[in-house]
């Protein structure tokens, strides 16, 4: 058996990724990715389909395993040490395109499950926290319903509230609005804007460039498994440096 050593460092960064490499079989999906996310920083990751955005974000809470390089979350290195994985997963909330709510549980129960089972809160404590965050995403009146009785946008807001109930130190989003109707996209983006205004550290994969411009401190552009360009939103959109970025933006904005 190989000995597992885990590095814990003193770090002011929320997430620190150095020389990250990942392969799916022979396919080199992430190539020497370096990214540091400061506490309270809002990062938007953009890029064409298949560039590795989801893979990168999934590596941050070990839904995908990387083969080379280092990922530190709040100073704790992500290795195969199960203790650290569960610690990091409870500190980093994740919100996907599909909401992944438990259909047989009420909205309230969906939100209290992990705080009770992972954080060890009493039902009363967990419900109090759940109602606080359901109010925050403006959906507390639906607490006793089941997910199937809610619209897509409402379910996504519940998914965000559910993640917040764990009091995460950072939130990862992977195209949270791309499965939604145009009318409901705004309500989810508004929820994310509120979260950003509250100072949450956020890493968001999104095609919502209006959101990126309004909220992001930095936009990261990925292509073919590498970070091609990163900049402030204004520079990124108004003065893209890399040819690949220019092409991507011209396709997105249709000119
Ligand atoms: N489990 C897997 N096994 C093998 N290849 C995979 C796997 N998951 C993703 N890939 C491949 O890795 C590459 C990056 O995929 P990824 O899902 O990270 O891209 P993405 O940038 O999120 O794309 P999209 O914008 O379409 O969501 C793609 O070529 C994809 O086909
Ligand atoms: Mg993706």
From TrEMBL:
CDD domains: ABC_HisP_GlnQ
Enzyme Commission number(s): 3.6.3.-
PROSITE patterns in the record: ABC_TRANSPORTER_1, ABC_TRANSPORTER_2
One of the record's GO molecular function terms: ABC-type amino acid transporter activity
Pfam families: ABC_tran
EC primary class: hydrolase
Keywords: ATP-binding, Hydrolase, Nucleotide-binding, Transport
Stated family: Belongs to the ABC transporter superfamily.
Listed name of the protein: General L-amino acid transport system ATP-binding protein
Organism encoding this protein: Yoonia ponticola
Organism classification: Bacteria, Pseudomonadati, Pseudomonadota, Alphaproteobacteria, Rhodobacterales
């Amino acid at each position: 058996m190989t000995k597992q050593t885990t590095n814990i460092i003193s770090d002011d960064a929320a997430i620190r990724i150095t020389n990250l490499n990942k392969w799916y079989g022979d396919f080199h999906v992430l190539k020497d990715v370096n990214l540091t996310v400061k506490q309270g920083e809002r990062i938007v990751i953009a890029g064409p389909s298949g560039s590795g955005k989801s893979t990168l974000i999934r590596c941050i809470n070990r839904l995908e395993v990387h083969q080379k390089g280092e990922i530190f979350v709040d100073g704790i290195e992500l290795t195969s040490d199960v203790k650290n994985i569960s610690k990091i997963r409870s500190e980093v909330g994740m919100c996907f395109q599909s909401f992944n709510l438990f259909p047989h549980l009420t909205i309230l129960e969906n939100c209290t499950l992990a705080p009770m089972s992972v954080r060890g809160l009493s039902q009363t404590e967990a419900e109090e926290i759940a109602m606080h965050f359901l109010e925050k995403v403006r959906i507390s009146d639906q607490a006793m319903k089941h997910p199937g009785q809610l619209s897509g946008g409402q379910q996504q807001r519940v998914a965000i509230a559910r993640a917040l109930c764990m009091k995460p130190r950072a939130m990862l989003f992977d195209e949270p609005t791309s499965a939604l109707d145009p009318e409901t996209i705004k309500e989810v983006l508004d929820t994310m804007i509120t979260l950003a205004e509250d100072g949450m550290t956020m890493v968001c994969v999104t095609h919502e460039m209006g959101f990126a411009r309004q909220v992001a401190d930095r936009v990261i552009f990925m292509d073919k498994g590498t970070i091609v360009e990163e900049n402030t939103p204004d520079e990124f959109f108004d003065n893209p440096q890399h040819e690949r970025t220019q092409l991507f933006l011209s396709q997105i904005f249709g000119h």
